[in-house]
Amino acid sequence: MPTHSERRVLNYTPEQIFDLVADVANYPKFLPWCTNVRVKSKTSQELVADLTVGFGPFRETFTSRVTLDRPRVIRVTYEKGPFRYLNNVWTFTADPKGCLVDFFVDFEFRSRLLQAAIGVVFNEAVRLMVSAFIKRAREIYGPSQFAALPAGRVRPAL
């Protein structure tokens, strides 16, 4: 039953980070172990997608429902696949330095073998995943818009 929560300030707006996390269809381009995504349905408030993840000899596909409460919260709930349960919540809050991101994930595989395999690499996997989102933000949005500005310049409003 790996659980992880993390809080970080990223130097982008909450809307930018929300859009990045909500762009599930592009996860295979930058997210480690995400090998395929098939968006089954999508509205402005929700999407349902099949995600395929692979690590080592393991490859599993699962269906999740992603609730989009723009620009504050993204909730991921499990629908079908190899888990007993999966809960994932992203919260985005304006901060003077950009966006305060709260990330929480809790899951358990049905298979004891899969659970044991992920348990060995879970902390490193989460670190790599968080780093991948930060790197993707830089690729899409460029250097932080909240970086130090020359004297006399006003920081962008949130």
What's this model, at a glance?
By secondary structure, the protein is an alpha+beta fold.
Explain what you see.
The protein is of the alpha+beta class. It has a single domain (3-141), classed as Alpha-D-Glucose-1,6-Bisphosphate, Chain A, domain 4 (2-Layer Sandwich), CATH 3.30.530. The chain is 27% helix and 46% strand. The protein is built from 3 helices and 7 strands. Strands 1-7-6-5-4-3-2 form a 7-stranded antiparallel beta sheet. Helix 1 (14-22) crosses helix 3 (112-141). It is globular, with a radius of gyration of 17 Å. InterPro entries: COQ10-like (IPR044996), COQ10_START (IPR005031), START-like_dom_sf (IPR023393). It comes from Acetobacter oeni. Residues 11-133 form the Coenzyme Q-binding protein COQ10 START domain. Belongs to the ribosome association toxin RatA family.
